[in-house]
Write a structure and sequence with these properties.
The chain is 10% helix and 43% strand. The protein is built from 2 helices and 11 strands. The termini are far apart.
Length: 181
């Protein structure tokens, strides 16, 4: 009986509540996606440039540049041949301290590796990009918190493709431990 009482108290205080997953999740083109793997070397995934190792790619997938005030999180499907990937970057200042925080500048790129092309590059016109800046508000990113070098928040928006079509991304959530640069 005492054990049940302790468990009920722990659950009510949120101690055992389910923590959000690491990575990026969203709905895109009527599909729910959970992208949890950082960039990895592989046949279809990230193409190695400059002799990078998987350890180097881990850092590039989760970084926070203090001088520029910029965070970038890159995730793809896990496994040897991922099909989808997302790169999310936005301005951020940890000293801000007020959450939720909406960055003035943000960019999201959605990549379908089966289309080929340059990975997460502006030259890749078959993939989708959304931006938020002085001119466009196609993308809304909201940082909900930053604790112990882990940043988390949500996003939604309208992504445009260089090939012409537009697509909505919604119910987006991100959570990642970032490396300071």
């Amino acid at each position: 009986m005492l054990i049940l009482f302790i468990l009920s108290v722990l659950c009510s205080t949120g101690f055992l509540s389910e923590k959000p997953m690491q990575g990026i999740s969203c709905r895109f083109k009527h599909q729910t996606m959970h992208l949890t793997a950082p960039m990895r070397l592989g046949h279809i995934g990230f193409i190695q440039r400059g002799g990078l190792t998987n350890k180097d790619l881990d850092t590039l997938s989760n970084w926070y540049d203090l001088q520029r005030g910029y965070v970038e999180i890159v995730r793809q499907e896990s496994g040897p041949q991922p099909r989808f990937g997302i790169a999310l970057g936005f301005e951020f200042d940890e000293e801000n301290g007020a959450y939720p925080y909406t960055p003035a500048h943000a960019k999201l790129q959605f990549k379908d590796f089966s289309w080929g092309g340059v990975e997460f590059s502006q030259a890749d016109t078959f993939n989708y990009t959304g931006v938020s800046n002085e001119v466009s508000e196609d993308l809304l990113v909201e940082v909900l918190g930053f604790r112990n070098d882990t940043i988390f928040g949500q996003f939604s928006g309208l992504l445009l493709s260089g090939a012409g079509p537009m697509a909505v991304v919604d119910s987006g959530y991100f959570r990642a431990r970032v490396y300071r640069r």
